[in-house]
Amino acid sequence: MKILIIEDEPKTGSYLKQGLTEAGFVVDLLRDGLDGMHMALSEPYELVILDVMLPTLDGWRVLQNIRSAGKEMPVLMLTARDGVEDRVKGLELGADDYLIKPFAFAELLARVRTLLRRGGKSKEPEVLFAADLELNLLRRRVSRSGKKIDLTAKEFSLLELLLRRKGEVLPRSLIASQVWDMNFDSDTNVIEVAMRRLRAKVDDDFEPKLIRTVRGMGYVLEVPDQ
Q: How far apart are CA 69 and CA 143, in angstroms?
């Protein structure tokens, strides 16, 4: 699942991005209200975490423009101000939840998952499938032929990407940017190592084999003969 954070305070933004990435989400971080609004309107995010006080365009305006454009993804507002009027304003403009700074990351993560459950009922599948492989996005669980498979956060994100783009050959550059949030470096074998470990868990003890390497191009997850 892909989350956009719009937060200009460097420590808070980096803290949130790291925590949510480790929890298995794909996260983009922007520090400017106008840039963040453009990203929210142009990219398919499942959730936006939006600070109120932002340069260029404040969070209220960003939220208002997101809703005016017909975007319905959940928006979680962050603010250091604890006034009731601020919370009411945010909710009236279309915010789905409101969190006062400072906050515990565990609370934010719980709210994120709750909002994703609410917002995903009509348009976001809870479970991704390929043959007998199942990935439950909300429960963060993977199984094949009914057997539970334990994955690390990165392995889960990698498998989620492969399942969402099932049948597509994904280049290493795309995998690097989506799962590791980095530019692809041909001198590193981090993707190959991760893919090898994922295959060992998902494919080695099962048939048919679902993940394969397309030489010189990347990787694909597909069900044979489909």
A: 38
* SS3 sequence of 115-179: HHHHHCCCCCCCEEEECCEEEECCCCEEEECCEEECCCHHHHHHHHHHHHCCCCCECHHHHHHHH
- Same domain, residue pair 115 and 140: no
The CATH number assigned to the domain holding 41 equals 3.40.50.2300
pLDDT tens-place string over residues 63-100? 999 999 989 899 999 988 766 676 677 778 888 988 88
CA distances from 195 to 9, 157, 167, 186 (A): 35, 11, 16, 15
Q: Is the pTM of this model over 0.85?
A: no
Of 86, 119, 152, the position where a domain reaches its end is 119
CATH code for the domain in which residue 153 is found: 1.10.10.10
Are 206 and 138 part of one and the same domain? yes
